[in-house]
Design brief:
CATH class of the largest domain: Alpha Beta
Strand order of the largest sheet: 12-13-16-19-22-25-28-29
Radius of gyration: 21 Å
Number of helices: 6
Structural class: alpha/beta
Largest sheet: 8 strands, mixed
Bound molecules: guanosine-5'-triphosphate
Oligomer: single chain
Distance between the termini: 40 Å
Helix content: 10-25%
Number of domains: 2
């Protein structure tokens, strides 16, 4: 069975980090999330992928190519204009198998897909939606189901005490190709707002709970949360770095100056330089080849590969995109910055 990864959205809520980067290529634990998705699904026996791309497709193609480096096979479905989450699936139709998996590539998860497939084989519907249980359903569209698992409707943002369940669409589906007849060609169509309601009317949509970690990384706040969960190992994503001491992961060829203090949890990538007497952590993720000066303080901060932070800077609660350079003695709190677009607070 092939998996179709939806990776073409603009990622507007994660700007400026996604200004010139597809959101699923944002690193999680120092590696593009999309790469983690491929490896996670490969571990579950899926090795044929179609990636639906639109926003900066060349960045995805350059990094992942035909997939050989990761031991998988990748084809691309390229959109000329944004087609939305259903339009993108329709656009990829000729590349898909009779039954296929669809994954929103910006959902950070470690879910097992086998229960989803098994459930799909047990009913007569055309779609099985993976459902995840959330604490507060009032922020989401929750499902109402009957005892067979058929989805009767989605109820958008219900009040806490009026929600029929705490189950929401996890952004992972098994679909039969037959379902694609309900999606018009070359038109922007949303699967959540248009296709699912139509298919629900035709009694073709079922849902089942999938267990495991789940987080939509679409906002700065949730992107941070994914990292803190990763460092706390609530999200036990496999990491390339070695855990040298409890909660301190360090990559290869990293040079650490004298008197540097790591306050766990911290994740430091490969070929990083950290100057004397800097204090890193708690909650810091430093990408590969970052250079950090002397006497820097850096906590609750995520730095992508290639950043330079000069001496005595103080950083708290920041996210820096690739190759950002920060002057000496800069004090930043809650800044989200990209080399091209500058600072945004949030
Ligand atoms: P926002 O602009 O912040 O809402 O983000 P988004 O539109 O990129 O993401 P959203 O959460 O709305 O979409 C879920 C997934 O579908 C993400 O992985 C997107 O990359 C992907 N996606 C959304 N729209 C399209 C599209 O038009 N084409 C393709 N190929 N993928 C899409």
């Amino acid at each position: 069975m092939k998996a179709l990864l939806l990776a073409g959205g603009l990622g507007t809520r994660l700007r400026p980090l996604t200004e010139n980067l597809p959101k699923p290529m944002a690193p999680v634990g120092n590696r593009p999330w999309l790469e983690h998705v491929l490896l996670h699904l490969k571990r579950q026996g899926i090795d044929e992928f179609v990636i639906a791309v639109k926003h900066y497709p060349e960045i995805i193609k350059e990094r992942l190519g035909d997939g050989r480096r990761l031991g998988v096979q990748i084809e691309y479905s390229v959109e000329r204009s944004l087609l939305g989450t259903a339009g993108a699936i329709k656009n990829a139709e000729s590349l898909l198998s009779d039954r296929f998996l669809v994954v929103n590539a910006d959902i950070v998860h470690n879910m097992s897909i086998l229960p989803l497939l098994e459930f799909h084989l047990q009913h007569k519907g055309l779609v099985t939606i993976g459902l995840t249980e959330v604490e507060d359903p009032s922020q989401y569209g929750v499902v109402q189901q009957d005892s067979t698992g058929e989805i009767l409707c989605f109820i958008e943002k219900p009040k806490r005490n009026e929600a029929p369940s705490r189950r929401v669409n996890a952004g992972i589906y098994v679909m039969d190709k037959e379902a694609l007849q309900w999606i018009p060609k070359n038109k922007e169509v949303s699967i959540e707002k248009e296709t699912f309601p139509l298919l629900i009317e035709h009694r073709a949509v079922y849902g089942t709970k999938v267990d495991g970690y789940w987080m939509d990384m679409g906002t700065n706040e949730r992107y941070r949360k994914v990292h803190w969960d990763l460092l706390d190992r609530k999200f036990p994503l496999p990491l390339n770095e070695i855990e040298q001491d409890t909660g301190i992961w360090v990559g290869e060829d990293t040079q650490i100056g004298s008197g540097v203090l790591f306050l766990p949890p911290v994740l430091i990538g490969d070929e990083v330089h950290i100057g004397d007497r800097s204090v890193i952590g708690p909650y810091a993720v430093i990408g590969d080849r970052c250079v950090i000066g002397k006497h820097v303080r850096c906590s609750e901060t995520i730095m992508w590969d290639g950043c330079k932070v000069h001496d005595a800077a103080q950083l708290n609660n920041c996210i820096f995109g690739y190759d950002l350079e920060l002057e000496a003695r800069h004090i930043l709190y809650q800044a989200v910055m990209n080399r091209m677009t500058g600072v945004v607070q949030g």
